[in-house]
Every structure is written in C-alpha cells, then in structure tokens.
C-alpha cells in the first residue's frame, strides 16, 4: 500500500503523520508531498528520513491512497489528477464537500456507504465532525428536529500564521496579522468569510454539512461560530431538539456508548470537557448534559475535540482505514 500525505509540512499534515503512527495505519511506502518550495528537503518520520516530493512526482508514483491537506485550490486542481491514476483521495479541504457526486464521510456515521466508485472522498469541516459524532446515536434513538450550535474555536483551525499571531501578541511583539483584529484576550464572532445572508462560511458549513452527513434535508440547524484565544481544540455549546422525549439517564448511556465519543460529565466534581484535556486526543468529549427546561424534548450539551485530530487528521486517516478494511483499497 502506497500512501501519500499531501501538504505534509503544514499543521494538519504534521498531525496526519502523528495519527498514521498513533493508529498504526499500515503502509508499505510513504510519499511526503509538499509545494515545490519544500520539495527535495528531508523530513523524518518513524525513524526514517523521507525526501519531500512535488505533486507531479507523487502522481507519477501512483499512490493507492492520498490524504490531502493542502487547501481548496490545490485539491480542485490535483485531486482529479491523482484519481485519474487510480488513487483514492481523502480531501481535508472544503473543495468537494458539497459536491453532490462526492461523499462527505465521518466513518462512524456513514463510512459503510463508501464503494469502489468513490475516488475523491471529502473530509468534513472540523466543527461539523465533532458535533455530528456527538449527536449521531442520539439521533438514531430520538430523531433530531433542530440544532442550535455556538462554537468556541481554537486558533489552530486557522493555521500556523494564526498561532504565531496569538503567541506574538502574548510576547508583546508586533505580529503578522492572520485575523482582522487582535486575538489574544479577545473573542472574534467571525470565522471564514461573511456570506450574503449574514452568516459566515464556517456557520454555513456546519448547517449544510450536517444535513448532508445525516442525509436529512429536514434537520433545522443554525450556528454561530466564534474564534477564541485557545489552542487545544474546538468547543461547542449544542442545543438539540429531538422528535421524541428522552431521559437524561438514557442520553448518558447512549453518549457513553457512541463510538469515538467519551462522556465526561460529572459537574459536581468539576469534570467536563475542556480543550486543554482534548488536545492530541482522537476522541470527541461530551459533557454538561442537561435538559433545556424552556421547551420540550430538548437537550443542552457541551462538546470538545482536538480540531486537528478528529476534526481533521484522525477522521481522514480513519476514512483511509475504512477504504482498506472494506477491500476498496488492497
Ligand atoms: C477553522 N473550520 O477552525 C476551520 C478549520 N477547518 O477555522
């Protein structure tokens, strides 16, 4: 199995490599792919030195699976070229997510829908992945009518320049600005670009991707996405209205048994999910489970995950693993 990591030198690319190692994802040959600027340089991985190759060289090498985290325009141009040589592309950008001909996959939810016809597979947006995973088994049991979500997102979601901005501000230096405003000691109700309807693109991703992953156009979703000066992961306040009533006891049991989710809900002992604890973990953490007493059949929850892990690298590597386990790639 020949595996290519496209965008290997980026923040998410680095996490992809850690996750490949962490999850023991088997490969026989590894291609580390980056821009022409990095090509030719050496990169260490699992005790071996690898020469970084260009996209052209990677296509010529005909990998079996390529995990892309190189931005939307690179994906739009190059994913089809990889697919044309028989490679399965798992793409972390937003380029293919809403393409009706491409699957948007969270393996625990719809990984079984992958078939031999799928050559370009989209990895959902980080803030969407953790929310749908937290809700998927509750949805099976009670049905979902409406979701109201507000996010508190890590600066790592905007890449290295944003992390550098925050750190420079903390050190009292003049940063190269990734955001339109200071981020340290601040909160920006603004992630990605504003759309004509007043929502940001990040908010619309949460709305549209949730419907696509759950294959349900009738779920009502509204989102407010917010950047905060933290690094370990994204946090979300989720208010979900079910079709049926529930007991908190059963909700706890369902969440605790949801694959990839860990219940951390003991407020009396100050136990609840936090980005500091979710950092570098592959799971989604859920807590603060309580009834919304203002209307029937409605639950409040707090959900945290490392956006570079389950929100990006972990989910992508799990999709690749699913392709292997299902025999689509051998
Ligand atoms: C963010 N959703 O956190 C983005 C990253 N894909 O900005």
Automatic annotation (TrEMBL):
Protein residues bound to phosphate = 97
Residue intervals of the Semialdehyde dehydrogenase NAD-binding domain = 2-117
The enzyme's main class, written as a single word, is oxidoreductase
Where on this chain does substrate bind? 153, 227
Q: Where is the active site?
A: 126 (acyl-thioester intermediate), 234 (proton acceptor)
Residue positions annotated to bind NADP(+) are 9-12, 37-38, 307
From which domain of life does this come? Bacteria
Instruction: Share what the entry says about its subunit structure, partners included.
Output: Homodimer.
- Which PANTHER family does the record associate with it? ASPARTATE-SEMIALDEHYDE DEHYDROGENASE, DEHYDROGENASE, PUTATIVE-RELATED
What does the protein in this record do?
A: Catalyzes the NADPH-dependent formation of L-aspartate-semialdehyde (L-ASA) by the reductive dephosphorylation of L-aspartyl-4-phosphate.
The name on file for this protein is Aspartate-semialdehyde dehydrogenase
Species of the source: Persicobacter diffluens
């Amino acid at each position: 199995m020949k595996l290519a990591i496209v965008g290997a030198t980026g923040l998410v690319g680095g996490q992809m490599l850690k996750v490949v190692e962490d999850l023991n994802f088997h490969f026989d040959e590894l291609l580390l792919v980056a821009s022409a600027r990095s090509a030719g340089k050496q990169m260490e991985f699992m005790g071996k030195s690898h020469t970084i190759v260009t996209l052209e060289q990677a296509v010529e090498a005909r990998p079996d699976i390529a995990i892309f985290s190189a931005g939307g325009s690179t994906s739009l141009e190059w994913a089809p070229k990889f697919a044309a040589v028989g490679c399965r592309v798992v793409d972390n950008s937003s380029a293919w997510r809403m393409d009706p001909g491409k699957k948007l996959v969270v393996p625990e939810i719809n990984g079984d829908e992958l078939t031999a016809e799928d050559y370009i597979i989209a990895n959902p947006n980080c803030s969407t992945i953790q929310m749908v995973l937290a809700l998927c088994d509750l949805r099976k049991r009670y049905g979902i009518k409406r979701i109201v979500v507000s996010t508190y997102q890590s600066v790592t979601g905007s890449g290295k320049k944003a992390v550098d901005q925050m750190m420079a501000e903390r050190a009292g230096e003049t940063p190269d600005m990734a955001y339109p405003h200071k981020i340290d000691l601040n909160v920006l109700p603004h992630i990605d670009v504003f759309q004509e309807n007043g929502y940001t693109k990040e908010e619309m991703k949460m709305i549209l991707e949730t419907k696509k992953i759950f294959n349900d156009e009738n779920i009502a979703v509204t989102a407010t996405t917010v950047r905060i000066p933290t690094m370990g992961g994204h946090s979300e306040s989720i208010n979900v209205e079910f079709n049926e009533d529930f007991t908190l006891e059963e909700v706890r049991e369902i969440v605790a048994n949801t694959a990839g989710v860990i219940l951390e809900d003991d407020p009396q002992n100050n136990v609840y999910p936090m980005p500091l604890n979710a950092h570098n973990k592959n799971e989604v953490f859920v807590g603060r489970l309580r009834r919304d007493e203002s209307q029937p059949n409605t639950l409040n929850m707090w959900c945290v995950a490392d956006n570079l892990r389950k929100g990006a690298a972990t989910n992508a590597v799990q999709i690749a693993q699913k392709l292997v386990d299902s025999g689509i790639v051998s």
